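Late entry, evening session. Most of the bench is empty. Finally got around to the prediction I had been postponing all week. Sequence below, unchanged from the version circulated by S.P.
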Amino acid sequence: MDFRTLWTSFGGKARPTKRPRKSTFTHKSHRTSCQCKSTMNSTLFQYTAEDRYAEAFAKNFTTVLVGIIINCINGLFVCTFFKSSIFYNDPRYILYIHMVISDMLMVFFSVSLIVMAYAWPKVPLPFCVILLIITSTTHKNTPLTLAGMAVERYVAICKPLHHHQICTVRRTYILISLIWGVGVLPGLADLILLLIVRPISIFTTSILCSTSAVYSTPYHEDQSKVTHGLYTSVVWLILVFTYYQVLIAARRASADKSSAKKAQNTILLHGAQLLLCMLSNITPVIDKIYGQLVPTLRSKITFFNYLLTNLLPRLLSPLIYGVRDKQFFKYMKGLFSCRQINAKIESTRQ
């Protein structure tokens, strides 16, 4: 093998020593080369389409699987509540199970929207708006419920003599109704803005069912920023106020310090739960930052960001609270270990 052949085998270009003769097969070789290039391009396109299909299937499968796991675990807490009537007269557990049910609904509708984006890209707009309003409402319910649970602990520690008069079962259900009413307001505001900005004929069309596609005007963006800031500020003020009051009561208490200390830890836990819920509010910011840094992995970053900031907190928040509560965990353990627990239920006046 001479030097010219060795250089060519490593990728170099050999220089001809003399001008090559004109071949009669030039046109045929060129046509064959074009056919080969065309075949390679079609094959490359086919592999790209298959890769995209496999990636979409993997994302949908993972999302559905994680959603089912989260709702199954949260369903255990719901079953424990309804199977043990001792929790029916305690406002704290009623608010807790409301938060769990709201999280389950949020996971179900959120995962459904993700799957629909792939399987049903053209959804009738009225049906899509209903789904978006339900998802937005259940998303807002969790921090509002955490605020209500913090207020209940504040009343139990700082006003123990009036706790049974203030925190009744009837008033707890009224509070839950108010939470749903306040939570649905941003979704209704988006709908009203859509009716004002867009022509009414848009409701006869079909569209990709996502918030960015339906509510795409600057007015919706401003409204979203205002409502997110308002809701977050109010909830944080309630948590800080109740924690401060419980802290003062714990320092002044001479007898029941353990109960006050437990209430402090509970409100701190509500703050941690609220931080987990707030992760979903910074999802667009994270997507934008990492999407610009690594544009080739933008879809994968968005997907994992959705799992970590939207789905995972809906599992950790109820799980931490339910397992931490000794009474609730005892009944759940007894219920699913097939052991009967005899409980004496004291009736309370409502």
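Two things to note before I forget:
The first helix runs from residue 3 to 9.
The radius of gyration is 30 Å.
Will write this up properly tomorrow.
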